[in-house]
Amino acid sequence: QQQVKQSPQSLIVQKGGISIINCAYENTAFDYFPWYQQFPGKGPALLIAIRPDVSEKKEGRFTISFNKSAKQFSLHIMDSQPGDSATYFCAASKEGSQGNLIFGKGTKLSVKP
Amino acid sequence: DAGVIQSPRHEVTEMGQEVTLRCKPISGHNSLFWYRQTMMRGLELLIYFNNNVPIDDSGMPEDRFSAKMPNASFSTLKIQPSEPRDSAVYFCASRGTGELFFGEGSRLTVL
After folding, report:
1. Strand (E) positions, B1-111?
2. Average pLDDT score, chain B
3. How far is CA B78 from the centre of its chain?
């Protein structure tokens, strides 16, 4: 049973555009929602994370929007750059950042110059 | 800190052979995780340790897989015998009181 569903599987965006990746979860006990960024040949690295007591968190060009009632959260990348081309994973866990992460299947983002 | 260190980075072996993947977590981290990444299934948690003790191995595919953590600075994931369907990238990750840090992975190809 897939507890975190991520879409789209792949995304192509022009430089300067907005990239949007969506995730939906099933378990209402989840209380920590991070996004990881993975470059080819590297391990995933934490990009940004949110807890359900806020609806939005912004760090530079990256924003997480969180909709608790819909059990959905999304990553927005503003002014997308070719260097943002990577695979992005959403994840969720119980017990905050100390819980075990359940990952979505990933979105491969390509930003065209 | 050097981060999570995994070896080998690449392994090509033949079906039936034993494979051992190694991981050195970040010093001071008390939790260690083994993940498997494939195109079809994404990132799957295989097993995790807390203070060197296996806590949850429900993600280990079958008895051919085993993991050990003899001390706080070393862990192994062993596959015996290996099969072509085990081909994947295996990641080790460690955590202290904050975020999860991943190694660069071990790419396993079983012919």
Report:
1. 5-7, 10-13, 19-24, 31-38, 42-50, 53-56, 65-71, 74-79, 88-95, 100-102, 106-110
2. 94
3. 9
CB A92 within 8 A of CB A3: yes
CA dihedral B38, A13, A47, B26 (to 10 degrees): 40
pLDDT tens, residue by residue, A18-75: 999 999 999 999 999 999 999 999 999 999 999 989 999 999 999 999 999 999 999 9
Is A44 an interface residue toward B (CB < 8 Å)?
A: yes
Kindly state the DSSP code that residue B28 receives in the 8-state scheme: T
Q: Which helix (H) or strand (E) holds B60?
A: none
Structure tokens at B83: 């099969």
Residue B93: both structure tokens together: 């990750």
Type of residue found at B79? I
In Å, how far is A18's CA from the nearest CA of chain B?
25
Could you tell me the two tokens for B26? 């970040």
Interface mutation vs chain B, best among A2, A50, A103, most B CBs within 10 Å: A103
CA distance B51 to B46: 17
